[in-house]
Amino acid sequence: MTQPSSPQGLDDYAHSGAGLAGLTIEDSWWPEIVRHLTVLIEQARLVEHHVGSRELVPAPSFKP
Amino acid sequence: MTQIADATETAAAVRAGSLSASDAVERALTLQFERGVELNCFSEILGGEARADARAVDEAIRAGRDPGRLAGVPIAVKDLFDVRGVVTRSGSKIDLDRPAASQDAAALKRLREAGATLIGTTVMDEYAYGFTTENTHYGPVRNPHNTERIAGGSSGGSAAAVAAGIVALALGSDTNGSVRVPAALCGVLGLKPTYGSISRRGLHLFAASLDHVGLFARSVRDLVTGLDVLRGDREDAPATTGRDADDGPIRIGVAGGHFRNGANPEVLDRVDAIAARLGATREVELPGATEARAAAMVITAAEGAQLHLDDLRARPGDFDPMTRDRFLAGALVPASAYLAAQRFRRWFRSEAARAFERVDVLLAPSVPFPAPRIGQREEHVDGEAVLTQPYLGVFTQPLSFIGLPVLNAPAGLVDGLPVGVQLVARPSEEHVLLQLGQILEADRSGILPLERG
Fold first, then answer.
1. CA B253 to the chain's CA centroid
2. What is the pTM of this model?
3. Interface of chain A against chain B, CB under 8 Å?
4. Percentage of residues of chain B with pLDDT beyond 90
5. ipTM > 0.90?
6. DSSP B218-272
C-alpha cells in the first residue's frame, strides 16, 4: 500500500493551525492526524490539477 | 418454510383485519430477541412506543378510519434521526449527554403518520464517518448472512435489521455510500434518492452538502411505497410512474473506467450479469470519477470537522480515535483545498450530464468485494493491499458527490456473500430505477427473499 509522504512543512503548518483553531492535540495523536492530512492534501492536489483555478462553468442541466 | 412478509403484505393484512398491528409489533420484537441481539442491530429498542403506535393503528381500524399506507409495518431508524423523547446518539458517547429530541425527524414523522410502528433506533458508525459499522462504543453490527462479517456502514444496523426480517423498512443516511454499501453487503435494496428530495429536518448532519436520507427494504414495491410516503406523493401516482411509453426503451450503460478497476473480478461478473439481463449494450465512462472520489473525501473531512468543532475542542478524548483523528485532520484542511474540491464538483456534474445524454441509467458495482471479517483492516485487490474501511466507498463516493439518485439492487453472491449493483439515473428520475428494480426482482436476478422455518 503506497502512502504519500508528508509535504515539507506540513508538521509545522498542522501544529500552528491546530493552535489557531483552539484544538488541543495529544502528542500520540499527531502521527495519524498528519497521515490523514497528507492524504487529504494529496487528494486536493489531484483535483486542482484537473480543474485549476479557472472560473466555474455554468450549472449543467440533465436533459432526458 | 414461511416467507417473512414485506411491508406491503403486512400493511394489506393489517388493513384487511387479518393481522393486528399489535401482533405485527410483537412478531418484530420476538425476532429482535431471536436474531437482533446477536446481530447488534439496535442501539435502543422502543417497545413501549412501538406498542403505542400499534394500538393507535388498531384503534383507527376499529373506528373505521384510514390507518395509513404503512399500517402496522415495523420500521427502524438509524440513530442519527431524531425520535421524540429519545436522545439521538449518532453512534457516539458524546451525544448521550444531549437532551432528548422534542419531535420526530421529518422523515420518521411521515412514516409514522402513514401507520408505521417504530421498533427502535439502529447502530451506526460514530457520526456516520465509516463504511463498516464497527462502533467502538456500541460494538459491531454483524452481517445476517455470516455473523463473522461486517454489515457495512455507516447505516449497518438499519441494513441488518431489514436483511434479518426484524423490520420491513428502515431509514438510513447516505453521504458517500452509507446506505448503498450496507445494502449491498447485507443483500437488500437500498435507495439513495436525489440530493435534497427528502427533508433532512431532524437528521443530525455529517457533511451538509453531501448528506441524503435513504431507505432500506426487501422488495421494490416497499421502496415505492416508502418513497411515496417520504415525498408526500399521491397514492394514485406512485413512485414508479413518470415515464410514458412514448419515452421509448430505457437506455442502459455500464459505467467504465474507474468503475471497472479495483474490484474483485467476480463482483464485476455479477454487474455484467445484471447488465446482460437488462440489455445494457454499451460502456460509458464518467471522466474524472477517481478525482470525484478524492474531492468527496476532502469535502467530507472539512464539513464534518466544522460540525463537530466545539466537541473537538472541548472533549476530543471522548471520540472514537479513528473518527477523532480524521475530524482533526479535516479541521486543518486549507480553504483552498476545500474550494478546489467544490469547483471540481461543478465540472464533474457537467461531465455526468453529458454522459446522461447517451444513456438513461448507468450500472456500477456498489462494493469492490463482499463483506470483510469484523476487525479486518486490509483487503487485497488486483494484488495490492488496500485499507478495507475507506476502500469500501470507492464506487459509491463519485455518485453521491453529485447527488444523483442511486438504487442498490442485490446482485447475487460472491464467495457465498451478497454483493450489489448500483443503478444510477438523472436527478429526480427515481421512477426509472424502480422500474428496472422491478424487472430484476421479477426473475430473481439477485438475492432470494428471506425465509424462516
1. 23
2. 0.94
3. 1, 13-14, 17-18, 21-25, 29, 32-34, 36-37, 39-41, 43-44, 46-48, 50-51, 53, 56-57, 59-64
4. 90
5. no
6. SSHHHHHHHHHHHHT--TTS-TT----GGG-SPPEEEE-GGGGSSS-HHHHHHHH
